[in-house]
Amino acid sequence: MEVDDDQLSILASLKKYDVFISFNGEIRNNFFSHLCRAFNNIGIKIFFDDKIDRGEEISKALFDAIDQSKFCLIIFSKNYACSSWCLDELVYILEKKQKKELIVLPVFYYVEPSIVRRQKDTFETAFFNHEKCYNDTIIHNWRVALIKAAGLSGWDASKIRNDDELVNDIVNHIQAKLGSASKQELDGIDKASIGRLCGMGTSVKLGSKL
Questions:
Q1: Of the residues 2, 89, 112, 124, which is catalytic?
Q2: Which of 2, 10, 12, 139 has the fewest CB neighbours in a 10 Å radius?
Q3: Mean pLDDT, residues 66-90 taken together
């Protein structure tokens, strides 16, 4: 699996984490825990909010973790939009993607992408409640972020046989991207080395003794 130049730049960067996971706690004890276990089993470094030290400022800690991640998985579940924190996180994640500093992959966990994009059903209810507490600018930024994220290529759980298959697809995809980036880096190093050796050809003959 090849990666483009923008992705290669991100994947080759010396970041602390491979994957940042944005999610609502409703899936913590089922799909989410299964996904984390699968990542850990193959050595992919992940970050989620349980890694924040007690007493640390939550917003800064999470934003720093996003900055230090190569991928971001956004798991849109039924109550994702109920969390103002998830929505703030989403806005920041998409800002980093726009700057080509993060690869973003959505997972629509039994929520249709159209529901996220149009903010219907539970998302509509969530925004009805948010509008009582937050100003128009914040609400607008959240809505725009959801529209953008819903248009990204990712996974729709309703079209995959079961959670096991979904987890395998996600983990294998990210593992392949990371592996492909490493291979491209090595290929580039090999070509550069060969180029330097070829440049020495006029002064050193193969098989000659120095």
A1: 89
A2: 2
A3: 96
